[in-house]
Amino acid sequence: MLGHLTIILLCQLAGEIIAKAARLPVPGPVIGMVILFSGLMLRGTMSPELENVAGLLHRYLPLLFVPAGVGVITSLDLLARSWAPLAGAIIIGTGVTIAVTGLVMQLANRRARPDQQEAPHEQ
Amino acid sequence: MNSDMVQLWCYLSTSPLLWLTVTLLAYQLGTWCFQRCGCSQLLNPVLTAVLVLVLLLKLSGTNYQTYFRGAQFIHFLLGPATVALAIPLYREVAVIRKTFVPIIVALFAGSLAAILSAVGIAWLLGGERILLLTLSPKSVTTPIAMGISEQIGGLPALTAVAVVLTGITGVVIGDLVLNWMKVHDETARGMAFGIASHGIGTAHAMHKSRVTGAFSALAMALNGLLTALLLPLLISLLR
Fold it and tell me: Do A121 and B50 touch (CB under 8 A)?
């Protein structure tokens, strides 16, 4: 468990160093994810323990966004002033993005694999 | 309050322990309400926790810096959790390989839709320039979005808030919109959640199925990369 957590942190550290050194606009953890993914592809196998560590981190993924969300308290003035454009952009914009992405992906899937008309599993 | 209580408060309010614990309690309260009400996404645990915490900070007159000294221990875990997204991706690599072209097509369409719809709607509703810049990376995961916002002249702190609100909105309306549009393909639903509402959408997608979760994680990562490259370019074209 500790060894696998260390591997994850090492990937993040390497990612942070690469991002800083190469002045990439991409954050360290995302580069760390690419490093870990490449490592897994090279090795061709994954230990169940690594899955356990990842499972633990991802089970509480929503919680990890709470501290950043509370940051809303620092911009209550701007929020009160611009609530309409903010709410509009977030609610309508997110709906539009979900619809566009889902539709385009489904269409592209059908074109790529015309033999399989519907997805194997309905929600 | 007698002087012992004042001393106790002075001690607790400066130690990271208090706000770390309160954050966990607020999230557990949010989860409890969420489950009590049949898992309706209107009572999303993140939303409840944020509202409860903002109220507590306001009532106790605590500033965000003091709060964050405790909450940073939770915030820090976002990094390792992002790295660990490599694991669901690796598990579904065969499906992802088979769907390579649709992934790229949907990525460009979704990424552009996210940026243009946010900026366009905010502009139509009379948003100030700084608000448009702040909102433009709202569909991207928090650390990337804050970096982009800083680079293009937005307000990173408000961007972080818009990102979290976008994530929650995506989870609240996502299934409705997708069902309404008759998008039943698991890979398409995953891409939609990942591109529109990043990590919060991915957490939601992971509860649906492994394939949906993996595609959401992939979409979130790719959308972060593409937006980081695309947005500064779009802004420089507009200048």
Answer: no
